[in-house]
Amino acid sequence: MGKAAREQSARDRIKAQREEQLRREKRKRVATIATVAVVAIAAVGGGWWFAAQSSKSEQVGASLAPITVAGDGSVVMARPGVEKPVLDVFEDFQCPACRALEETSGPTIKNLAAEGKAKVVYHPITIFQEQTNKGITRANSLRAASAIRCIPGGAPWMAFHDKLFKEQPSELVEGFKIPDLIAWGKDAGVTDPGFESCVTSQEKAPAHLEYSTKVMESQKLTGTPTLKLNGTELDTNVAFKPADLRQAVLDAAK
């Protein structure tokens, strides 16, 4: 090999080494950025999880307060004559944090209403956009919320409500399928002969979407779950801690 050839070969090796070094540095930067992003998301979005883990849930009492479905789809759970304080619960059946709230503070919310210490108003809504996971997540939420609108109220409404959270699917796969929703309704004690056709046709879906948009805009919601006590949003550390939530409601009644 001549001198010129050897020099060219050396230059090629140096170039290849530099390119490999650049690739390694790029992979390292990408990994670092991804790690920082995950940590940031966990710090912001995981607050509810840490609060839920540090809380002790109550046991649901023997009986519930009467449950009435309003014309707009909101649901009131309160003893007769109890008008305040008002605890509004904004939730999406496909929302993992909403499931965590139900598991952690759901019993306390039910008990406060049963004890006559609060008027609880549930607002099932759909917060997910059509483009989320190719529409799968939104469709899951919509089927569940439309189905529960087919129940006129009473204990079956709450039993179905709790079942939806218990059976909440992953946000990435199709869930809340029509046959399951119908079966869960019957298990919850729904006897209305029109329930099955109402769920199958999803006839309540348009009204539910309209209500969701209205509520999110009027309440200036940035996500779910959101608890409001007499119109004021409660901090996550209160909402996900049953003892603190109970005390906040009792203080609001003074």
Q: Taking Cα atoms only, what radius of gyration do you get, to the nearest Å?
A: 25 Å
Assembly annotation: single chain
What is the makeup of the main sheet? 6 strands, mixed
Q: What is the general shape? A: globular
Descriptive key words:
254 residues; alpha+beta; 6-stranded mixed β-sheet; 56% helix
Question: TL;DR of this structure?
Answer:
The chain has helices at 3-45, 47-53, 96-114, 136-148, 154-166, 178-187, 195-201, 205-218, 236-239, 242-252; strands spanning 67-69, 75-77, 86-91, 119-124, 226-229, 232-233. With 254 residues, the protein is α+β, with helices and mostly antiparallel strands. It has a six-stranded mixed β-sheet with strand order 1-2-4-3-5-6, sandwiched between helices.
Describe this structure in words.
The chain has helices at residues 3-45, 47-53, 96-114, 136-148, 154-166, 178-187, 195-201, 205-218, 236-239, 242-252, and strands at 67-69, 75-77, 86-91, 119-124, 226-229, 232-233. A six-stranded mixed beta sheet has the order 1-2-4-3-5-6, with helices on both faces. The model is unreliable at 25-45 (pLDDT under 50). 56% of the residues lie in helices and 9% in strands. A hairpin with a 2-residue loop joins β5 and β6.
What's the arrangement of secondary structure elements?
Blueprint: H1 3-45, H2 47-53, E1 67-69, E2 75-77, E3 86-91, H3 96-114, E4 119-124, H4 136-148, H5 154-166, H6 178-187, H7 195-201, H8 205-218, E5 226-229, E6 232-233, H9 236-239, H10 242-252
Parallel strand pairs: 3-4
Antiparallel strand pairs: 1-2, 2-4, 3-5, 5-6
